[in-house]
Design a protein that fits this description.
The complex is a heterodimer of chains A (about 220) and B (about 180).
Chain A lengths: L4 H13 L5 H25 L10 H23 L10 H24 L14 H21 L8 H23 L5 H27 L5
Helix pairs in contact in A: 2-5, 3-4, 3-6, 4-6, 4-7, 5-6, 5-7, 6-7
Chain B lengths: L1 H5 L4 H21 L2 H17 L10 H20 L7 H10 L8 H17 L2 H12 L4 H8 L3 H24 L1
Classes of the chains: A mainly alpha (about 220), B mainly alpha (about 180).
Amino acid sequence: MMPSSSLKAQVLSQVRAHPAPPRREATRRAVLIIGLAVIAALAIFVARGGIRPTHRAEELMLGTAGSSACIAVLALWAAFGRSRSMLGRPRATLVAVIVAAPLALLAFKILWSAGFAGGLEEWRSRAGFKCLGVGLSTGGLPLFALAFMRRSSNPTHATLAGTALGVAVGAWAATLVDLWCPVGYPPHLLIGHLGPMLMLGALGAVLGWRVMGIRAR
Amino acid sequence: MERYASGDDAAFEDLYDAVAPRLFAYLQRQTRDAARAEDLLQQTLLHMHRARGSFARGAAVMPWAFAIARRLVIDAFRRDKRQAMLTDTDLLGIVQLLPAAAPDDVAHARQVEHRVQAVLFALPESQRVAFELVRRDGLSLAEAAQVLGTTVAAIKQRTHRAYEALRSAVESEDSA
């Protein structure tokens, strides 16, 4: 069974009419897009007050922000990396990112903060919604940029891939939130530090389905 | 595809020649409509063209191409709410894959065909799809696993079960 000879001419004509950038050019554009998104996110972070140690011990801050950063790097590598496959990571890897990253971040934050006086103290005036705002505003643009880079890539598990990407970007945003927010009270952490990860994960699921997946015309 | 991703524009024609026949055969079987198959083939190839810049170095092309084609077929069927049917020639092709089968007359061949068709459609979809990708479309177990997003062990098990079910069907017809 062979396609008609006219189809080949048609396809080649369409390819010539709508050229796509090769890898080097596409990588340059991607770096630019990601770079701008990160710069914009950091600008939002600085505008909201930037790094605010308040009364926290340096070791406390370094420990929690450092662990968040490490989790974010690992999660992003797992969620965004493709190894040598165009079809994305296996389902188990993506589910592991979605489940493990938020739990690890929360667990480390609580356990590390517990080692410092007042580390888990309740702050009545800080329910966590300001942190939620900081997390969403600093994570949104990088998530859109990364999803755009993978648009129409058709990973096997597009929705899961998008969810994992959202959670991973949320871990990065949680790192910034951790530098900004001195509160270690667990209910506050659930709303303000974990909340952005979960909401960005949900947004990532939609982006995975609509942007990263493909549809017949 | 690697050459095309690196900037060699002329490589797309080689890519077309390498993947189009196999993809078309797959799409033709799935849609039973040559025109529809050509349309989906065109969409598949254009998706591959648009992904030129993000093609992962060293990635296998066929599983990716089949995954795109499969996604487009599923999406198209979802819209059209049609079921894929096998043609009679496809069934003969399946029967020939089974070593026990040697239909030596037309009537007997038709009987075997119908039996195989019934068994194939009765199979769980996961087994039928895995069997077709490996035994009909020529993908390796690893490639089929990539397309379906599962493990090689699962594909092996599914294709084996499908093969055994079809072989039993052919043998029972032969002995009847």
